[in-house]
Amino acid sequence: xxxxxxxxxxxxxxxxxxxxxxxxxxxxxxxxxxxxxxxxxxxxxxxxxxxxxxxxxxxxxxxxxxxxxxxxxxxxxxxxxxxxxxxxxxxxxxxxxxxxxxxxxxxxxxxxxxxxxxxxxxxxxxxxxxxxxxxxxxxxxxxxxxxxxxxxxxxxxxxxxxxxxxxxxxxxxxxxxxxxxxxxxxxxxxxxxxxxxxxxxxxxxxxxxxxxxxxxxxxxxxxxxxxxxxxxxxxxxxxxxxxxxxxxxxxxxxxxxxxxxxxxxxxxxxxxxxxxxxxxxxxxxxxxxxxxxxxxxxxxxxxxxxxxxxxxxxxxxxxxxxxxxxxxxxxxxxxxxxxxxxxxxxxxxxxxxxxxxxxxxxxxxxxxxxxxxxxxxxxxxxxxxxxxxxxxxxxxxxxxxxxxxxxxxxxxxxxxxxxxxxxxxxxxxxxxxxxxxxxxxxxxxxxxxxxxxxxxxxxxxxxxxxxxxxxxxxxxxxxxxxxxxxxxxxxxxxxxxxxxxxxxxxxxxxxxxxxxxx
Length: 518
Hints:
Elements: H1 15-28, H2 32-38, H3 45-53, E1 62-67, H4 74-86, E2 92-98, H5 105-120, E3 125-131, H6 135-139, E4 156-161, E5 167-168, H7 173-177, E6 186-187, H8 188-196, E7 200-211, H9 221-230, E8 232-239, E9 255-261, E10 267-273, E11 283-288, H10 289-292, H11 308-318, E12 329-333, H12 338-341, E13 345-346, E14 353-357, E15 362-363, E16 366-367, E17 379-381, E18 391-392, E19 396-400, E20 413-416, E21 425-428, E22 432-437, H13 444-455, H14 457-466, H15 474-479, H16 485-498, H17 503-513
């Protein structure tokens, strides 16, 4: 790696600015694939400074800080700079940092030495310990309930982190070491957060920037239960776009900054900015914790409204007591997996084929078929092998399982009616969900009404309150509140009678029906 190992601080430069330059120099010499494999994305200075600024000031003479995935040390520097400028009593900082990338070690030491000089000028002593160990393996014992009573364990005043982000296999040694908080396939950043939640002092705080994916979904359910039992959410920041948070590294995940404390509070501050450039001018609003964290259920879903409209939407949905299952509806994932049935997927229709619906065949309120696309045949042959993945031809609602990045809508649904085809079966590809009545058929008004609600701005607003990914999970939709079945049918009937399936009309109709304005 041809990086500049001779990089030096500029006179008057803050340690966090120097750390960012060091990180950028290292990152620019790294191969993109290697960074993604490691989940290694260096924090921009603007974000680091913001994260440091939301730490609660202290007047302690000694503080202990942990940075469990330190990178170039920019987060540690930003946090210490913020504390040092607000605490005139501070005389000693004990800093423990972890990073498994040994190529970074000389650069981390260089930044730590400059931070030490910067603090000495302010009569503050710095003691830094760098561990090249795997943080999860070295500290997973903190998850044990027995470890709570170990008086010798190290505890921290502040933990700050931009942990690695990548999925872990079920048999990965890190997954197995934290098995009690794992549901299916997890992400390593969740293990970092869970362990850190048990490493805080009684008045400690942890500040993380992570993907938003932990806020909902079955794979993070045990993690959320564990996290919210150990720490209390105090602050959360959202970005309106995925594109420029870590733009240098082409990271397009939706990220959030969150602060958790060991002190329970009934309020949560939600902060919001368009991106990094306006983060210092971010708008802030305080909400009741009961409106943010769904503490009354086992799911512990995290809802993050940024406007009064979002709160009103949340309150409306929480006033509904029904869900799909209560009305006899079921949602499943399309059973046709293209690569497994490729030899049976064809472009032309004949007496031995039935229509096959892909994601691109579904647009809002319209199942469009056939739509010719390369390598996406519009029909599937009826054989002994394919019969088990074909559906009976009846009324359904098809719903895309994912949206495009920064798409206008997360939910894109269309009604499908059995009389659209004379065939006995219909094929639904795996990137679509489909909704159906378990026993019998969806009524026409139910099919239109339910599809309209899913496509409405109202449901999109609600979905965005807890879902920060491009994926539309069947699990999340199963537990989503729905209005009474009579409301669904009334909306469907009005659309049918007016013969108006436009999204503008649907939005207007839905908002009038539920007396809400968005």
